[in-house]
């Protein structure tokens, strides 16, 4: 059996939505031409705004977004699944959702995850970001979605730091955890790869982590290092240091995943008589 390939994307979004759309659609074409069955884009691929006000002003409903429509068209034309982070209107006029869409190879949006944990931090000599100024948090952990590469479970960026979500999604049947992200440089250097590898190792799942890279505007730069990790914690593929749009590709081997889980059945060893089962 040859195993299906996944592609993870890395680029630098600006506040110009049409430009970001061209980059993503070009990468979808490239991923499909390399034989990938699914391609994963970063958080906020539609735009990175220069202010809270601009972020709210640029945001539409999903069914009114030319960015989303163009990715749906590309997914259908190229017969490839697409995971992508975008902004979405919420019921409150001054706040949005930070959403993660899964689009199937017919161009249908099959799942919309709304980021649960909001990045409100003020780090000395580091970033100060108050995501909750512009964003409402979601309230649901989603079930994994069956795709040609395996069961894909959606999260977003800062959610990575809350292992409960990954454990819950593992219990619900995830083969692959996905973290579309725009990590800051300071936190990324310290935490990005160890957190991703920890989630892969402790849940024995593949981890696909798309990332924004480089300077979006005068105030904001992202860490990059998009990567695909296997259930043993090995980094199978990663994007390089260039801020030019790029892809990294790896096979998703569910026999290998089963082998890892059989040889060391950590999920069966959980002491849910001592602490609660997360589900
Ligand atoms: O701003 C947008 O439009 C999109 N949202 C983001 O980029 C979010 C909120 S500012 N970034 C993160 O969650 C970074 C997390 C991070 O860097 C960490 O956990 O260390």
From TrEMBL:
Annotated ranges, domain CN hydrolase: 3-254
Hydrolase listed as a keyword: yes
InterPro entries, alphabetized: C-N_Hydrolase (IPR003010), C-N_Hydrolase_sf (IPR036526), Nit1/2_C-N_Hydrolase (IPR045254)
GO molecular function terms listed in the Swiss-Prot or TrEMBL record: hydrolase activity, acting on carbon-nitrogen (but not peptide) bonds, in linear amides
Keywords assigned by UniProt, alphabetized: Hydrolase
The keyword Hydrolase belongs to this UniProt entry's keyword annotation: yes
Cited CDD domains: nit
Pfam families the record matches: CN_hydrolase
Name of the protein described by the UniProt record: Nitrilase, putative
Organism: Phascolomyces articulosus
Lineage: Eukaryota, Fungi, Fungi incertae sedis, Mucoromycota, Mucoromycotina
């Amino acid at each position: 059996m040859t195993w299906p390939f996944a592609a993870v994307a890395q680029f630098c979004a600006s506040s110009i939505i049409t430009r970001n759309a061209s980059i993503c659609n070009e990468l979808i074409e490239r991923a499909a031409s390399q034989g990938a069955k699914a391609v994963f884009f970063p958080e906020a691929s539609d735009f990175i705004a220069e202010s809270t006000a601009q972020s709210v002003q640029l945001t539409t409903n999903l069914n009114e977004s030319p960015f989303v429509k163009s990715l749906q068209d590309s997914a259908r034309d190229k017969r490839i699944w697409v995971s992508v982070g975008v902004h979405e209107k919420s019921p409150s006029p001054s706040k949005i959702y930070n959403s993660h869409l899964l689009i199937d190879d017919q161009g249908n949006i099959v799942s919309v995850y709304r980021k649960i944990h909001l990045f409100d931090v003020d780090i000395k000599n580091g970033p100060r970001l108050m995501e909750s100024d512009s964003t409402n948090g979601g309230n649901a952990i989603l079930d994994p979605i069956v795709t040609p590469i395996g069961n894909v479970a959606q999260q977003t960026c800062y959610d990575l730091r809350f292992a409960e979500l990954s454990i819950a999604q593992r219990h619900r049947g995830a083969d692959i955890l996905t973290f579309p992200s725009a990590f800051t440089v300071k936190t990324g250097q310290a935490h990005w790869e160890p957190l991703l590898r920890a989630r892969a190792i402790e849940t024995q799942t593949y981890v696909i982590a798309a990332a924004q890279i480089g300077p979006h505007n005068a105030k904001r730069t992202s860490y990059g290092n998009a990567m695909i990790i296997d259930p043993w914690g090995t980094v199978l593929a990663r994007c390089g240091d260039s801020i030019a749009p790029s892809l990294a590709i790896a096979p998703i081997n569910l026999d290998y995943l089963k082998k890892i889980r059989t040889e060391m059945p950590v999920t069966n060893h959980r002491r849910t008589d001592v602490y609660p089962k997360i589900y």
